[in-house]
Amino acid sequence: MSKITLPVYGIEIKRDIGGGASISSNLIHDDNEPEVNTALSAIESLVLSQACAKMNLTSASYIKSLTEAVENVKRTLS
Question: What SS3 state is found at 12?
Answer without folding.
Answer: strand
